[in-house]
Structures are given as C-alpha cells and as structure tokens.
Write a structure and sequence with these properties.
Helix content is about 10%, strand content about 35%. By secondary structure, the chain is mainly beta. The two termini are about 20 Å apart.
C-alpha cells in the first residue's frame, strides 16, 4: 500500500454515514432505559450497592484515602463518599426512566458546567464588587511542523518555545488517538495496528509491554483522573477498561453496534461515556461495568466524540449533522443546548471546554465556552449558556480535526489535515501587525528531514 492509499483509507477515517441506521430506529423511546428490561436488573444492583456504601455495617470499606489506596488499580476502592451522597440522580435510576420527547425548543434554564470555587478564608473588602466576565479572544502563537505523510509517529514539542522534544516511534500503522495522563508523565497512543502503547514523556521511550486485546483500529483513549486506568474505544465496537500499571484488560464492554468514536471519564472516575456511529451515547458505571444511561437524539445522527463537562454533570457530543449537543445525562434527556455554525458531515471532530472571565481565582465572574474545529478550516468558540459564537478563526487549510484547551496557561491547540499543529494564546489586547501574528512574530517549527 503506497502513501496515497494510506491517506485515502486510513488517515483520517470517515465514519459510516449511509449505513443500515433504519434498523436502529425501532426504539419506543429516545431513552432506551424506558423500554429495556436489562436495565431494571442494573437498577436493583445499584440499590444494594449504594445501600452497602451508605451503611458501614453492610459493607466494611474504608473511605477514600490517597495514602491507603494509591496503588489500587480499580477505582472502586476509592470513590469519594460524597459522590453517592450528593448525586441524587443515581437514586432516580432505581425508578423506570420517563419517556422524553425532544422536539421542543432549547430550554431557557440556566446551567453551570464549572466546578464551584472553594470559599475564601479571608474575604476581600472588595468582595461585594462583582466583575462581569469578559471574553478575551485567542490569537495564533505558534505553528508546529514536522509530521510527514505515512509515518506512524507521535511528536512532542515544548509548548512555550516550540522546540521539538521527542519523536515517539513504535507503532506499525497510523495513530488515531493520544491521551495524556493527569500528571503528564505518561502518554498513551492508539493505532491502526490494534495496539495501545504507553510512553515515558521525559525520556521519549515506550513502556515494554503494549496493551493488546482489541480486534480492530484503536480510535479513542482517555485516562482516569487518578491515571491508573485507561479507557479505549475501537472499530471492533467494544470499550475496554485497562489497568495501566499491570498492562492488562480489567473489563470489556460490548458497548455499541458500530465503531466506537469517542470515550471519556468523568471528573471523579466513577463514570465512563462512550459514543458510536450507531447514534448512541452510553453512560457506564466504572466499578461494575453496567450501562446506566443510553442517550439517543431523534435524528439518530452518528456520534463521533464525547466529552464530560468540568463538573461532571453534562456530556458534550459531536455528531455528523453539523451539531454539538450538550446532554443532561442525569435526567436522560438533552438539555436543549445545541451549538451550530460549523461544518461536520464527513470527519470525526473533537473539541473541549474552556473558561473565560476571571481565570485567576479572584472574585470576578467566570463563564464557560466550547471550542471546536470545522471541516471548512475554521475554529469556533461558543458561550455555553447563550450559545453565542464568541470567536471564529481561519485555523487550518482543510478540516480542523482536533482541538484541546489548557486553562492554566490560557492556551488552545488545534490540528488539521494540513499536517500542522497550531497553538493559540489568550491575549489582553489586539497584537500589532498582520493577522496570525503575536507581538509581530509567527513561530514556525519544522524538523529537518
């Protein structure tokens, strides 16, 4: 197979839009829980499980302590007690899920996806002066070059200087997904060679034992918040949960009837979200592997990527009808936040959440935004609550495949079919010079052949 064949057939992969989706429309309700007897058994299992956690006499287990359970591979043993006490939605799972209709307009109710701040111990005398959140646009900081067609490698750059640090080679076919561990010491890569490799970021060396078990392309990866588990989605329609330290499969979930496009962990690691070309989004219980929710929109468009909100209460999903939808999975229905303006009908796109306003933990207002790529080469920023487009940039030549954010440093990074990685920086004022410059300079880094 030559390079042109590889580009056409494998990088990036096109999702099956014209499949046999008519066979998938036989649900009596958008929420499968309303008509699935399998989930009734799940609810009863959750009842006994939650009761045992809340009553120490029924289940002798110590409450989470990092010192005591740091080496445990299964996060079942260190779920914070407040997760079960405070998430009343899990009690609703014990009752038959109601049937929802999704034809109504977007709900006007206010939603919050940001984790609340800790109360200040020494209130400022100016605490009563509430500063309104102001969106500061992002401008291009760097253009990183070096990727070559048909080369199965992961490249690591220094985000502050643009200097290339490592080129990670070891896969035998194209790489479709990468994921950083929470401490940024390990990088996971999923490949068309059906393997997942773990890399030491500081040395650029691969760990000796790859993660093997999938029977088709690896397409999505996500680390748990503690970094001791990894979830993967594959074209073999399964979701695997891995023990990172032991390099073995902990659990295999027969998740979907089509290739799995996206997976993600919630903020405390107790839930996993998965999506697929069958148009379904599933919410899984990490300790038991049980499916708690199945979400499907009335249009049944293929879902290519999912992302939990920062506070873990919502799921954001990209679909091949040029929509990004925010789901309230606790209630089993869409919260009627649909973000549009981009083009997404062919490729698997992904994006992320971000925060604007007072990002320095002061007393000002904070608001959330969503950023995503588009098949026409643009990047779009939406306000989560109002759905207003805050910013639109010509980012790449061709499709913008992936976008991610780093709030601490005020950065957004994007990658596209033009084989470029671009870093965008939040600036306080418009830089002087032509578009695409920061302080009059465009940084381009390209490895020598």
């Amino acid at each position: 197979m030559d390079d042109s064949d590889f580009e056409q057939e494998h990088a990036p992969k096109k999702r099956r839009v014209n499949g046999s989706y008519e066979a998938q429309t036989g649900y009596s309700s958008p929420d499968e829980l309303a008509a699935s007897p399998v989930h009734d058994d799940t609810f009863h299992q959750r009842t006994s499980s939650n009761a045992s956690r809340e009553n120490p006499s029924l289940h002798q287990r110590n409450i989470y302590s990092p010192a005591d359970h740091g080496d445990s591979a299964d996060e079942l043993d260190h779920v914070p007690r407040q997760f079960y006490y405070n998430t009343s939605w899990k009690q609703s799972l014990l009752q038959p899920a109601p049937r929802y209709r999704l034809e109504t307009p977007d709900a006007p109710t206010e939603i919050s996806i940001i984790t609340p701040r800790e109360p200040s111990r020494s209130p400022s005398p100016l605490a009563s002066h509430h500063r309104e959140a102001i969106y500061i646009p992002y401008k291009l900081k760097m253009v990183l070059k070096g990727h070559r067609q048909g080369v199965a490698a992961v490249k690591i750059w220094d985000a502050s200087t643009g200097k290339p640090l490592h080129t990670l080679e070891g896969h035998l076919a194209g790489i479709s997904s990468i994921a950083w561990s929470p401490d940024s010491k390990i990088l996971a890569s999923g490949s068309d060679d059906k393997s997942i490799r773990l890399w030491n970021v500081s040395t650029g060396k691969a760990y000796p034992v790859p993660l093997l078990g999938h029977h088709n392309y690896i397409y999505s990866l996500a680390f748990s918040p503690k970094g001791n588990m990894l979830v993967s989605g594959s074209y073999d329609e399964a979701v695997f949960l891995w023990d990172v330290r032991a390099a073995r499969v902990m659990r295999s979930l027969p998740a979907h009837s089509d290739p799995v496009g996206g997976v993600d962990f919630c903020r405390d690691g107790t839930l996993i979200a998965s999506c697929a070309s069958d148009g379904l989004i599933r919410i899984w219980d990490t300790p038991t592997g049980q499916c708690l929710r199945t979400l499907v929109h009335e249009d049944n468009a293929p879902v290519t990527s999912v992302r939990f909100s920062p506070n873990g209460k919502f799921v954001l999903a990209w679909t091949l009808d040029s929509c990004v939808r925010l789901w309230d999975y606790e209630r089993g229905r869409c919260v009627k936040k649909t973000y549009q303006g981009h083009v997404n009908t062919r490729f698997s796109l992904s994006g992320s959440f971000g925060i604007y306003g007072d990002t320095n933990e002061g007393r000002g207002e904070r608001k959330a935004f969503i950023v995503s790529g588009s098949e026409d080469g643009e990047m779009l920023w939406w306000d989560v609550q109002s759905k207003e487009i805050l910013q639109k940039e010509e980012a790449h030549e061709g499709c913008v495949l992936g976008v991610d954010t780093w709030e601490k440093g005020g950065l957004v990074v994007s990658c596209g079919l033009d084989k470029l990685v671009r870093i965008w920086e939040r600036v306080d004022q418009e830089p002087e010079g032509v578009a695409g410059e920061v302080n009059g300079v465009v940084v381009e880094v390209e490895e020598k052949e």
